[in-house]
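Quick one, T. Sequence first:
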Amino acid sequence: MTTQNTLSTQVFTHHKVVEVLVENLKCGGCASHIVKKLSALPNVSDVSVEPTAHAVQFSLSGDSDEGMALTLQHVLQQLTALGYPPEGTLDGMLAVGAKAKSYVSCALGKISPGDKPT
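Structure tokens:
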């Protein structure tokens, strides 16, 4: 006797993989902090960072292209706020303040959650 399970699912979301080249990305600490912060954003998943290429890659999902565009805008704003503005943008060219923020993010990324100051 054969039992057949059929599961029909209809998905109403769009999915897109995005790669952004950013300023000030120096090391694994930077990468760790970026992954943590972007992974916490809604509709953002599969975040990866390649420090040597200054590349941040992530997946966006949403119900419409407009919704995904808003999510992308939010991700770019978050990267800039962390001190990693996209390359070639005005924020990237005026990156003196961003560079200082990136050093803080880098240091935070190097501290694991279990570390306690002594």
